[in-house]
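It would be a great kindness if you could assist me with a short task in structural biology. A protein sequence and the structure tokens that stand for its backbone fold form the material at issue. I should value your view on which stretches of the chain appear to form regular backbone elements. The record follows directly beneath this note.
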Amino acid sequence: MNLLDAVLWLPLAGFVLLLLIPRERVRAIRQFALGITTATFLLSLALLVGFDRTSAAFQYETNLPWISSPEIRYHIGIDGISLWLVLLTTLLSPIGVLISWQHIDRRVKEFFALFLAMEFGLIGVFVALDLFLFYVFWEVSLVPMYFLIGVWGHERRIYAAVKFFIYTMTGSMLMLAGIIYLYIRAGTFDYPALIEMMMNGSLMLDRMEQNLLFAGFFAAFAIKVPLFPLHTWLPDAHVEAPTAGSVMLASVMLKMGCYGLLRFCLPMFPAAARGAAPWIVMLAIAGILYGALVAMVQPNMKKLVAYTSVSHLGFVVLGLFTFTELGTNGAVYQMLNHGISTGALFALVGFLYERRHSLEIEDYGGVATPAPVLATMFLITSLASMGLPVLNNFVGEYLVLQGAAQVNFRWAVFAAIGVILAACYMLWMYQRVFYGEARKDFSMRDANLREWAVMSPLIILMVWMGTYTQTFLPPITASSAAILEQTKVNVEFHVERQMPRQELANAR
């Protein structure tokens, strides 16, 4: 067992141990959950120590047999992309516990047990190097979120939870069919082995096979992103979920779809990916503009922030399907940026809800007067979300737009409109909530110590990621370059190899 195994399995061990704590010991349950998630985060930081930032190879690998027939292996490892997604997950998990410290006051034991199980599943998705193992972790992360929404959500929680489950499961079944077909063709679920077989020509998928497999995997990942027009489950899930559920859903769970597109769809089915790129880019740009326009007219703060995710993650999909180094690096960086800034927005909206017990913008006004610190936190986060230079989102969006402009300048022009609209809806929401005449029918306390503990690391990261980008980009660049190289396989090279045979057949 290496360090990555410990990071993966510690939340599950915490889940089992937490079940042994009597449910009436609420404070002990909260402290234990915070301790486990904090320990997991500190362990994950140690991954940086021995990580080779210039290598595209998988590191901290463990490859052991699990099931003999069919051959399924416990194969995990990380590269420069999954490293940061694991760290994002482990960072936001203790923050989610702190957010829920007072807000969750019923079935506390069950809530934090499911929260730990969800962290286990999310980490597993980003480290799994066996396709069947990846699918197991994919589903493991789905079930806890279903219950977090359905049990601890708001008035329409059952509707939102069922809609979330049906959408995600539909895509998952298509992906599972594709995984099984690949096993039938290749005789293995092992991801590095599959990539190697595709690169050396021992596994050749014709255009029809690639298109169907790409469609199955793409459906699962596009729903999870969510890519327009498959996004309709997201606003309902966000509005009804508890605050910690919204934070983990937006910051980490949506990245499962983006990660899947980059890790599986692009390198495994490159011809299909390149063939589908123009219409996928159109959907991504439509999502950028649609999400921004709909966010501008939302009366509910949570729903407004939810639609910003549709817009911001459209930039991620756009960057991936430019097939450029700048676009891919920007897409990965934007995944991390969105996780920090949008997670912070949902946390801040949750803090306001705890005070006012309303998510409607019209129920607020003048909050900056009694709560200036909270207003400052919200302003910095809003500026980061809209892409202000020196804050994190600017770097990711700029790289994506550069990558898009290299391929088709019109893509960059239309996508840039989404940046302008982001300033409109974020500043308009901020003005209506925090300025104007202060409401007289409720008191508004300023940020407390727990809220400081939640927001301080996120705000620090917004500035750090916006200024010291070389802390994060070198490992991302190395891994994304390797994936882009893999997308050239079966596109030009293998077609050229087959042409002499066709010419020979024609001559006969």
Observations:
- The CA atoms of residues 92 and 248 lie 7 Å apart.
- The first helix runs from residue 3 to 18.
- The chain has a mean pLDDT of 87.
